[in-house]
Description:
By secondary structure, this protein is of the alpha/beta class.
Amino acid sequence: MKYSxxxxxxxxxxxxxxxxxxKEHGFHGLEYYSWWNLSDLNKVAKEQERIGVGISATxxxxxxxxxxxxxxxxxxxxxQTIEACKMLNVRSVITIxxxxxxxxxxxxxxxxxxxxxxxxxxxxxxxxxxxxxxPLNGLVDHKGHFLQRSDESVDVIDQVGSPNVKLLxxxxxxxxxxxxxxxxxxxxxDRINHYHIAGNPxxxxxxxxxxxxxxxxKTIKNTGFSGFVGLECGFTIDTDEAIRQFKDEVIAQxxx
Length: 256
């Protein structure tokens, strides 16, 4: 498996600082969500080449997938994102559903999402990039969010039917929403492109909450998964020290 950090792991530090730290720790990528906030994509691309590690995932523009009236806006955002990914050599793009629309049947919103993703699929297939659908918890962090469950997300992905539309399984979110983490995180392994991890409660570094990440990641690794596991979390101690602890107390245990 490969490991990534997310922008903000080093507060108030820029993308280059994050990339240099990722290289220093022997990690493999940076998740930089809002690529449109980068003022010079060519400069970042050159820094990636210099450092030897780059941005592994970014996001689409934050436009609703369940509102048919903004479908063209969403697709235009996708086109722009794909062009940015080509410049930065990013192979994964994260998308979220947006919030529930009041007064619109849930099944209608679900089918709108499926149809919009079907429009997106050929764009990502042609670019060789994976679009990752991420469910988020509505209990703590994202009240009103439409797509929350992993099983429902997999149903959406199966209806789209593209090898380039997959699931981002966020262990923190799914522990809050549904629990049963190890079973769900491995049952859907053929649809999962990427994992996020954090402690729960608190959403801080793994090891600060109730989740046993040695067992979780060992089970995922034993499926043969070789993609990214992203530390999408806050840190209760110095970031460098937290990463060293994670490598010593979690990663080092996965081969035993």
